[in-house]
Amino acid sequence: MLPIHTFDQRQGGNVLYKALAHPLAAEALAALSASLANMGPIAVFDPDGIAEALFVLHPALPPIEGIYVQDVREVGREHAGHRARPLDALREAPPRAVLVAAFDAGRLVARLAGLLPADTRIVSLDQARLPEAMLTVPRRYLDRLNFATNFAFFRDAEGFSTRLVTANYWSGYGASALRLWLRLFDADGRVLATWEEAVPAGPAGIAIDSAEVRRRFGLAPFTGQLFIHAIGAAGHDVVKYALDTYASDGGASLSCTHDANAWPAERYAGLPAPREDERVILWLQNSHAVPIPAGALALDRMGAERPVALNAPVPPFATIALDVASLLPGLRWPAQIELRAGRHVVRPRYEVVRAGRRRIAHVNVERTDLRPDPVLATLDGSLGRGFLLPFPILPRGRFRSIVQPTPMADTQADLPLRLDLFAPDGTPAGSRFLGCLPRAHGVALDLDECLDAAALADGGHGELVYDFRAGGAADGWLHALFRYEDRGSLHVAESSFGAHIYNTLMTYKDEPQSYAGPPPGLSTRLFLKLGHAGRRSFAALIYPASRPWLARSQTMLLLHDAAGRVIAEAPLRIACSGSAMVWPDATFGAAALREAGETGYVLIRDTTCRLFGYHGQMDAHGGFSLDHMFGF
Question: Which fold has domain 7-132?
Answer without folding.
Answer: Rossmann fold (3.40.50)
